[in-house]
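Homework-ish question, so no full write-ups if that breaks the rules, but can someone show me the predicted structure for this set?
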Amino acid sequence: MRDCYDVAVVGAGIVGVSTALHLLMRGKKVLLIDRGGAGQETSFCNSGIIETSYVLPFSPPSYKHMARILLDTDTAVRFHYSSLPHYLGWIADFYLKSRIDIRRNNGKLLRPLIACALDEHRALMRGTEAERHLSATGRVKLHRSEASFAGAALERRVAQELGVSFEVMDAAAFHEIEPFVRPVYHKAVKWTSSARLTNPCAVTAAYAEKFAREGGIFQKTGVRALTHISEDLWNVETEQGAVQANQVVVCAGPWSSDLYKSLGYAFPLGVKRGYCRHFSAIGAATLAHAVVDTDIGYVIGSMEQGIRITTGAEFADRDAPPTPVQIERVLPYARELFPLGEAKESQARLGNRPCFADSLPVIGATPRHKGLWFNFGHGHSGLTIGPSSGRLLAEMFCGEVPFCDPTPYRADRFA
Ligand SMILES: Cc1cc2nc3c(=O)[nH]c(=O)nc-3n(C[C@H](O)[C@H](O)[C@H](O)COP(=O)(O)OP(=O)(O)OC[C@H]3O[C@@H](n4cnc5c(N)ncnc54)[C@H](O)[C@@H]3O)c2cc1C
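A: Not a homework solution, just the prediction itself:
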């Protein structure tokens, strides 16, 4: 007689690992499946910021910015023209949802997951290797001109309304806390409540080790299909054979569509690709914060592997070969800002942000299948809210009173 699990969680990025751990902590017999190691995909390739100061979703590009994107000279956003037809609907929806009142409301709807994010990470990392990767200094946004600083006034106003703290610094004041950053900018905004992980992949792996240590089963294999066999039984068809579970949670980030499509679901899930690459620093130069070069559209920060540069958004087919043009484009600006040495790897690494146009994830039970749950679409904030999303899903799964209202994240909001 084959093992039957209470629940199989597909995907061991930060979202899947956190979900599996929360289910295990509630006494469930949990199988976590990933075709690679924990945290090796998008949960590797990110800027490491725990964005507890996030208050407002991204706005779409201005007309001036759009002209640069269309000419393919922009540093922050890039299109593969061949995949544009595929993305047009998503982009149109993104523009529709960019009205200030809608952005403010969507920012507010995400706040419950964001506000507790650091505490939720702390709870999962207690007693694990992950603790040494948590740094209390988080995100700083640099503005190269007064116009750029003024352009971000709405974010600061909303933050003030919500009681999210920040400090505006001139170049002299910022030099005191980041002495290696050259004063090529006009103002720095330090988001004081945000934090940083100096190795996001290692943190995800440490949560997965905790899961295994406490009795969870991790299986390294690809999932081909999910089949609802009977009222209370799911067949998980893997590359190593079938496993059975009473319930299944899909946490496969940008690949979730591969699993839900065959079950008859269609979601407007887009993928914003992004790249990361590590460099040495010249001399003893280092960075205490994750520094966002706002006008150019990249992030630079010190990681365990070196100085990491991460890029903005590339709209391309998810499975198209990597085209890390944006890393090359932002490098001269990064070198102007910080004494960067040589690249540490021969190639940049690709990450795929799973994004909905309303900047909210899907978390919860599916509308049409008993025992099927979704937890994906965490966009630009998945590293931050992976643990809080995992907790929310586990609370609903176990019939507990959820710590926040899950309604905004329902799968049927697109119906
Ligand atoms: C450049 C960049 C910078 C970013 N910076 C930040 C930041 O500073 N802060 C922040 O909060 N967020 C940031 N993000 C976003 C964040 O990294 C993502 O939202 C998050 O990692 C998504 O996690 P996930 O678990 O949903 O997906 P993933 O980490 O991609 O995990 C999905 C997992 O599912 C597995 N999988 C998929 N299909 C199958 C299958 N069929 N069978 C078995 N396994 C499968 C994959 O192998 C993978 O391990 C950034 C993203 C990028 C690209």
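Now go work out the reasoning yourself. Hint: Residues 100-115 form the longest helix (16 residues).
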